[in-house]
Amino acid sequence: MQQSAVPELAHTHTRPIHWVATATAVAGVVALSSVVQPGSATAAQSGPGGRSAAAAVAPPSTAGVQFPLECGPVKAVVARKAAGDLDGDGRPETVAVVHCDAPMGTPPDGVYVLTRAADGGKPRVVATLVEPKQRLTVTDFALRARAVSATLLGYSSDAVPSCCPDVKTPAKWRWNGSAFLRSTPAGAHSV
């Protein structure tokens, strides 16, 4: 093997400081990308008489809503929420996963659909998709293509401890014009 005419360069060896500098730069880019986001897309359609329709309607907020949930001395907590137009009327609804703020254990979830009147009134609960008395925990919660989907963790019997759900069921709810209908996609099974 022929020896290089150029001596080995010191800057070609990585040292811990190089890795620290690279990690810091990557962390800075990630942090900056979470702060700098593009604006939401909006579209305006011309209505009768050439007037522009409202580009976007804000979804109902969960703040101040009285959920049909008995929590006793603790308050109700909105664990997750998603918004979208579930009924095709051009106004978004909000779907909220709510449970009691229990100091220990895993309290059961309730899933509620919120809407508001066309005049922009106070948000209100219009449908309950999951009742807390069913003792279910909601995971993989999403709202896509005018449907609410979630994975429901539950119990095969009352003898199963609350810490350890042993049944996993996927579920999807879709508005049919008068009510939310639940379907259970293939794949429901015990965990």
Which properties best describe this structure?
single chain; 191 residues; mainly beta; four-stranded antiparallel beta sheet; 32% strand; extended
Plain-language structure description:
This protein is mainly beta. Helix content is 10%, strand content 32%. The protein has 1 helix and 9 strands. The strands form 2 sheets. Strands 5, 6, 7, 8 and 9 form a 5-stranded antiparallel beta sheet that branches. A hairpin with an 8-residue loop joins strand 3 and strand 4.
Brief account:
This protein is mainly β and 191 residues long. The protein has one helix spanning 16-35; strands at residues 76-84, 93-100, 110-115, 124-130, 137-144, 147-154, 167-175, 180-183, 189-190.
Arithmetic mean pLDDT: 79
- Separation, N- and C-terminal Cα atoms: 60 Å
Q: Please indicate the percent range of residues in DSSP E strands (runs of 2 or more).
A: 25-35%
Biggest pleated sheet? 5 strands, antiparallel
Question: How many helices in DSSP terms?
Answer: 1
Taking pLDDT < 50 over at least 5 consecutive residues as the criterion, the unreliable ranges are 39-55
Rg from Cα: 25 Å
The chain-level structural class is mainly beta
Helix content: 10-25%
Number of strands: 9
Shape: extended
Order of helices and strands: HEEEEEEEEE
Oligomer: single chain
Write the topology of this structure:
Blueprint: H1 16-35, E1 76-84, E2 93-100, E3 110-115, E4 124-130, E5 137-144, E6 147-154, E7 167-175, E8 180-183, E9 189-190
